[in-house]
Amino acid sequence: MFNLIKKDLIIQKTQIILFIPLIIFLILFARDISPIFIFLVAGAYISANAYVYDGMVESNILLNSLPYTRKLIVTSRYIGAMVYMVLSMAMAGAVLYLFDYSYDMMDMAIAAGLFFIFAAIAFPLFYILKPAYIGVVMFIGMIALAIGFQPAARFLERNLITITDFITSLSTTMLYLSGAAIAIGLYLISWIISQFIYQSKVF
After folding, report:
1. How far apart are CA 64 and CA 70, in angstroms?
2. Using CA atoms, how far apart are residues 106 and 47, in angstroms rounded to an integer?
3. How far is Cα 13 from Cα 156, in angstroms, rounded to an integer?
4. φ, ψ dihedrals at 101, nearest 5°
5. 11, 74, 171, 199 - which has most CB atoms within 10 Å?
6. What is the maximum span of the chain, computed from C-alpha positions, in angstroms?
7. In this predicted model, what pLDDT tens digit does every residue of 94-117 receive, in sequence order?
8. How many whole angstroms separate alpha carbon 158 and alpha carbon 148?
9. What's the pTM value of the predicted model, to 2 decimals?
10. Does the pLDDT of residue 22 top 70, yes or no?
């Protein structure tokens, strides 16, 4: 499994070189953007690129000819995504710190939760859609998730009084733990769905 995870770093050398400049670009030219969005982009960068690359070169044909089970291939994707998310967010945090861009650990935690939700929706689609559509879906989905998070929360606060009363009755710790549990739960469900889709695919 370690070799499958390491493969994404090896085949993405060029894209990884562009990672730091991308973060610097967001800092310099979008100064008012939320650090949550920057961390979300950073966390999804390597994993999403790996899916796009595999779809373009049809590497799944090669992977399925090697002594790896389909279950292991999907598992390495989901575990690798978590590893890359942590490393990428740590690197992004270091760059933000060097450029004196204000953020705190809660921004990273919220971005991680948004990443799990984004990945839970996007990863199964990567096994269904053609490569030509993957980048478009990934880009639109990530932006919609980052931009729509706060407006959706305000909408719920105004219109769903019962739900918002229950949410506001929770302590801050319980609220964040509940959000984390939901995000991770969706990620695990997505993992199972991807396993089912990939097992039935013909290469």
Report:
1. 7
2. 22
3. 42
4. -95, 120
5. 74
6. 55
7. 988 888 888 888 889 889 998 999
8. 15
9. 0.78
10. yes
